[in-house]
Amino acid sequence: MLQQTQVKTVIPYFNKFTKKFKTLKELSKCSEKEILKLWEGLGYYRRARNLLTSSKLLVKEYKSKLPDEIKEIKKLPGVGDYTANALLGLVYNKPTIALDGNVKRVFSRLLNKKVLKINFEKFIELNKKNLFSTKRNSDFVEALMEFGALICKPKDPKCGICDLNRTCKYFNSSNKIKNIKNKMIKSKNYDFFCYLNKKKQIALTKENKISFLKNFNLPVIKKMGNISENKNWKFLRSYKNSISNLKLNINLYYKFSNKIPSTYNWYLLKNNKEFIPSFTKKIFKQISTLF
Ligand code: SF4
Predict the structure, then answer these.
(1) Going along the chain, which residue ranges are E strands?
(2) How many whole angstroms separate alpha carbon 159 and alpha carbon 157?
(3) Which of 164, 166, 172, 175 to mutate to test the pocket of ligand 1 (most atoms within 8 A of CB)?
(4) 213: closest CA among 273, 286, 288, 283?
(5) Residues near 284 by Cβ (< 8 Å), separated by ≥ 6?
(6) Which residues partner with 223 through β-bridges?
(7) Which of 105, 152, 156, 176 to mutate to test the pocket of ligand 1 (most atoms within 8 A of CB)?
(8) Which residues, listed in sequence order, are joined to residue 250 by a DSSP beta bridge?
(9) Which residue has better confidence, 197 or 182?
(10) How many CB atoms are closer than 10 A to CB 241?
């Protein structure tokens, strides 16, 4: 839940989730529909699907226990190097380091060397005696992440109160490195075409061809531009929405029709009991102004 999401946003979801599923077995028995409904509003729904698949795999193949080998943990969907190392350290107290952006920055500053210029695997291997001199590896994994987030912060590191400042090459250098974050924000333009009916319903399908919107319930989507295609539709409004690192400029069109393509289903705009991702809910909000 915490991937790409702030703690304060996650807390109510986490509480609701752990109240509903007391054991891995209980979680593994829930349906995708049910887990998505609980996740509704948290975004990045692939995490929910992966969690469900992982729980099934753990119950079936690993007697409901997290494996303690990196190779095995990485078989769980959605678990890469970072999560696998974090789990091994936090759960099994194994000598590992979960290399997220914060931790990489800490090492990069200690060495005064750019993140991209460090071979972290080699660095950890060469320094393992010093890095893993503690028996409290679980605390060490956590502490490194917290240290990066609270002391050796991206902007304005708190070097004055840092215990490592005597040996830190960044602090002691007159030529400090700069790690520039290249977060590419792309902008894309789409036309959304919504079939509506008088029962305040909208027709949606999961079969759209836009890869980053895969598995979303959505109306007809086309790349913006071909005005002749739009002439049978009424323009409602333009608005912006973001998804991952994409900014979408959306033109919303609608038409009332009882005939819809066979892969579409009707959904109520309000009081819908189905799982509706926030992205689609924003479409509902715009469309609701018509009724
Ligand atoms: S001295 Fe400053 S730059 Fe170096 S590790 Fe501490 S907080 Fe980070």
Answers:
(1) 186-197, 201-204, 220-223, 234-243, 246-256, 265-268
(2) 6
(3) 164
(4) 283
(5) 202, 269, 270, 276
(6) 190
(7) 152
(8) 190, 239
(9) 197
(10) 14
Of 195, 184, 185, which is closest to residue 256 (Cα–Cα)?
195
Cα 154 to averaged position of ligand 1 atoms, centre (Å) = 10
Task: Name 232's Cβ contacts closer than 8 Å, sequence gap at least 6.
Answer: 255
- Locate 90 and state its tokens: 């936090």
Contact 113, 162 (CB under 8 A): no
Q: 84: which residues sit within 8 A by CB, 6+ positions away?
A: 70, 73, 74
Looking at residue 4, its amino acid is Q
Please write the tens of the pLDDT for every residue from 112-155.
Answer: 999 999 999 999 999 999 999 989 999 999 999 999 989 999 99
Structure letter (DSSP) for residue 190 = E
**How far is the C-alpha of 88 from the C-alpha of 97, rounded, in Å?**
9
Tell me the CA–centroid distance for residue 125 and ligand 1, in Å.
22
How far lies 223's CA from each of 206, 246, 252, 253, in Å? 17, 14, 12, 13
Please tell me the pTM assigned to this model. 0.71
* Tokens at 142, concatenated: 């956590």
CB atoms within 10 A of CB 237: 11
